[in-house]
Design a protein that fits this description.
The chain has 236 residues and is an alpha+beta fold. The chain is 30% helix and 13% strand. It has helices spanning 3-28, 90-98, 105-118, 135-145, 155-160, 208-212, and strands spanning 162-164, 176-179, 184-188, 193-198, 202-207, 216-222. It is rod-shaped, with a radius of gyration of 57 Å.
Length: 236
């Protein structure tokens, strides 16, 4: 064998060894197999959010009035009273009864002031004031404060010392009205009602119509200064 063939055989043998060694090392390495599935891969989904309601309730907005330097202070009307009395208005009643009183204007005004100052004071049997009154005690106090003096009497005794009146005279201010079988009395205000000491309401104004109209015994005018009867037991 010549020299050139010898070199060729060595080269071929080296190439065979190289190829065999490379193939073996390739077979020894683990194969990476990717699994291909026909099902889609589940991807993490973002958290669900509650749908925002399209109907949003609008809050009422308070509109501040514009500032102004023109400040107006509400003042009560002069004809309106801030304090309500049992009767509607003392000035109105004065105008009515002063022209229809059995007494002069000075005595009439004094009696009215005395009555109005006592409205609402509680009732107490046998008392003549100033913190409690019964019916005859109230009548006596009003007349006494107006300068008409007489001895304190029961309703029945005052009936006996008074003069009967009829017709329109019954409803003149200052006339005495007797009720409940002479067990109760009061001072006439006008044709609509009278002032008296009520056992339930104290000193008050009551209309004739209704509860009292069937309890009236009669109307009389006090003969002041003409009689001085010995005091008797008080009444209601």
């Amino acid at each position: 064998m010549n020299y050139s063939k010898k070199i060729w055989y060595l080269f071929a043998a080296a190439a065979f060894v190289f190829v065999f060694t490379f193939d073996s090392s390739a077979q020894d390495r683990p194969r990476i197999v990717k699994s291909i599935s026909s099902q889609p891969i589940n991807q993490p989904q973002p958290p669900k959010q509650n749908p925002v309601s399209t109907s949003v309730q609008s809050r009422p907005t308070t509109v501040r009035p514009p500032l102004t330097q023109d400040i107006q202070v509400a003042r009560p009307v002069e004809s309106e009273s801030l304090v309500k009395k049992t009767v509607s208005s003392s000035s109105a009643i004065t105008a009515i009864v002063a022209s229809r009183s059995i007494f002069d204007r000075t005595t009439t005004n004094s009696m009215q002031r005395s009555i109005f100052s006592k409205l609402g004071i509680p009732y107490l049997y046998g008392s003549t004031g100033p913190n409690r009154y019964d019916c005859s005690g109230f009548v006596w106090a009003v007349f006494n404060e107006a300068g008409i003096n007489f001895t304190r009497q029961s309703a029945r005794s005052l009936w006996g010392m008074s003069t009967p009146v009829e017709g329109d005279e019954r409803f003149r201010f200052g006339t005495l009205v007797f009720l409940n079988g002479l067990g109760h009395m009061g001072i006439v205000a006008d044709e609509n009602g009278f002032y008296h000491a009520s056992s339930s309401k104290g000193i008050t104004y009551s209309p004739f119509k209704g509860y009292w109209e069937n309890r009236i015994v009669g109307f009389r005018r006090l003969n002041a200064g003409e009689n001085d009867i010995t005091p008797t037991t008080s009444d209601k």
